[in-house]
Design goal:
It is a single chain. 33% of the residues lie in helices and 15% in strands. By secondary structure, it is an alpha/beta fold. It has a single domain (2-220), classed as Rossmann fold. The longest helix has 14 residues, at 43-56. This is Esterase. GO terms for molecular function: catalytic activity. Residues 3-215 form the AB hydrolase-1 domain.
């Protein structure tokens, strides 16, 4: 099976480099997806890049979205419900129809730069050493305003039939289940098949627990 890997905000496909070997050793094809991120890029441009990867996949792929890109993976299920075999979301939840994609931090000069580590103190970043923090911040790609403030459009209710695996890093499965039950994640509340998987890591397990993350994604596939 092809496993498409979409990084969250400020990341490109290279963030998966240590996850790829474990996936491919198990006989799957790992496809890191780098979405466009020029200042003029819109959310629909990024969606188009993900859909192109889905359409190019051999067979029906597992589409993996990390953090905010959980929404990109879910949009792929909405736009290609008969092509996407399963969605895996890591440390994030799909945004509801009509909501802004990722308007989380200050936008300056047409983009949303990485806000610094103060915003991620605690469980998110506790397992990142100083070298990893410096490398991630230095390589962070500003998120175009047209992406961060893009409106999510979901139209095909067949997406709710696509199985979902929720990988829980800085929070646990019980937390995620409680949030969904409380109505905080309406998209997953309506999904017919949701599996919860725990991983003992912070928000970026592809950097701190790549082998374990690869194993979980292989099991999902």
């Amino acid at each position: 099976m092809d496993i498409l890997l979409i990084g969250g905000l400020w990341l490109d496909g290279s963030v998966w480099r240590d996850v790829v070997p474990g996936i491919e050793a198990a006989g799957h094809r790992a496809v890191p997806v780098t979405v466009p991120a020029d200042r003029s890029t819109t959310l629909e441009d990024q969606v188009a890049a993900v859909l192109a990867a889905v359409d190019a996949a051999d067979g029906n792929p597992l589409v993996v979205g990390h953090s905010a890109a959980s929404t990109l993976a879910w949009i792929a299920a909405d736009r290609r419900p008969s092509k996407v075999a399963k969605v895996a979301v890591i440390g994030g939840f799909p945004t509801a129809d009509g909501s802004l994609y990722a308007d989380f931090f200050e936008v300056t000069g047409g983009s949303m730069p990485f806000p610094g580590w103060e915003a991620f103190e605690g469980a998110d970043s506790a397992d990142l050493d100083e070298e990893a923090r410096r490398a991630l911040a230095a390589g962070a790609i500003p998120v175009p305003e047209g992406v961060a403030r893009g409106v999510v459009h979901l139209t095909d209710e067949r997406r709710y039939e696509v199985p979902v695996v929720l990988v829980c890093p800085e929070f646990g499965p019980a937390d995620a289940q409680a949030w969904i039950a409380a109505g905080d994640v309406p998209e997953l509340a309506k999904a017919k098949h949701v599996e919860y998987v725990d991983i003992d890591s912070g928000h970026w397990p592809m950097l701190t627990k790549p082998d374990e993350l690869a194993r979980l994604l292989v099991e999902a596939a």
